[in-house]
Amino acid sequence: MAFPPLKNDLLLRAARGEETERAPVWVMRQAGRYLPEFQAVRAHHSFFEICRTPALAKELTLQPIRRYSGLIDAAIIFSDILVVPQALGMEVQMNPGPFFPDPLVTPADIEKLTKDVDVDKELGYVYEAITQTRQALNGEVPLIGFCGAPWTLFSYMIEGGGTKTFQKCKTWLFKYPEESKALLNRIADVCIEFLVGQVKAGAQLLQVFDSWAGELAPHHFQEFSLPSLQRISSGVRSKLAAQNVPAVPMTLFPKGANSQLAALAQHAGYDVIGIDWCVEPSEARAAVGDKVALQGNMDPNVLYGGRDAIEREVKRMCESFKGGKAAKAWIANLGHGITPGVNPDDLHWFFQCVHKYSASAPSA
C-alpha cells in the first residue's frame, strides 16, 4: 500500500534514540473533549459509533493536527483501549466512563469470552480508520496506533469499569494466579494481532498503554504485568518479520511504575518508555541509560495554571530531559492524557514552549 512520503520524521528519529534538533511533541488524548470541534462531532454520535466509523475516527484524529499544524509532531488514531475486550466478546458501554454490564466475576466466566478471536474481522474498522487517516495526513506527521496493556484491560474486564481500589482484579491475582496469567496471555495474544494489523494498515509507531501499572507492587508487576508486555513486544516484532513487514518503533507507557524503569528498559523489549510526572526526567534517564528513548512528562494539570506556569514548567522539563545537551531520544508529552477542561489556546502555548526550550542552542 503506497502512502504519501513522510515530511516530518522527528518522532521516529527520537524513538530510535537519535539526537534531534528539538524534541518532537504530541499529547495523549489530543483528539479529545477539550476541543470544541471534537464536541461538535460527538454531539451527533455515540463514542463507540465514532470508533467504529472510519470516516469519523479519521476526522477526530485530524482535528488536533489541523489546529496545531506546524507545532505537533504526531497523530494518534482515535480509538479506545477497550475495543480489545469488545473483540473478546464483552459488552462495553461509555456513559461517560466505561461500564461493563457483565464483567468477569470468577475464572469460570472466562468461558464466556470468544475462544478464537478473528481480530481482523472484529477490529477491522480500526485498520480502515488508520489507512484512511494515513492517506489524509499526506505525510505531515507520523500516525501512532495503540492498544491497552493486558493488566490494564484485565482490571477493566473484572472490575466492570474504572476503580479506585482494584479489589476485584487483585483478588484474582492472589486467589487465582494461574488463571489470571492465562487470561493475561490470552489478552496479550489479541493485542499482538491487533498491533500487527495496525502496522499493516499504516501505523508508523505503536504505543501500549499500561494505565494501571503503578497499582501493582514491584514484585507483582514483575510477575503479572511484565511477562504479557514482553509477550506483546516480541510477538509483534516476530510476526511483522515473518510477514516481511518493516518493524516500527514501540512505546510502552507504564503509568506509575517508576520504580520499574531500569528493569523495563532492560527487559521489556520496547524502544520508548513513557513516564508520568511523578519522576524527575533526569532520574528516569539515569535509570534507563541509553537503552531506550523516553516520552513525557509534564503534569497535565499545569495546563490550567496559565501561560507563565506552563512556560516555567516546560522550561524545567526540557532542562531535566536534556541535561545541558541537545535533545536526544526524547519525545515531549504530558505525563498522562490532556483533560477536558483545558483551553485549546493553552495547549498551543505548551507546544510553542516545547519548541522554544527543547531546541538545540544555535551554534556560534
From TrEMBL:
Record-annotated Uroporphyrinogen decarboxylase (URO-D) domain positions: 24-33, 144-160
Catalysis: reaction(s): uroporphyrinogen III + 4 H(+) = coproporphyrinogen III + 4 CO2
Annotated signal peptide: none
Main location, first listed in the record: cytoplasm
Superkingdom per UniProt: Eukaryota
Gene Ontology cellular-component annotations: cytosol
This enzyme's EC code(s): 4.1.1.37
Subunit structure as annotated in this protein's UniProt entry: Homodimer.
Name of protein: Uroporphyrinogen decarboxylase
Organism (species): Trametes coccinea (strain BRFM310)
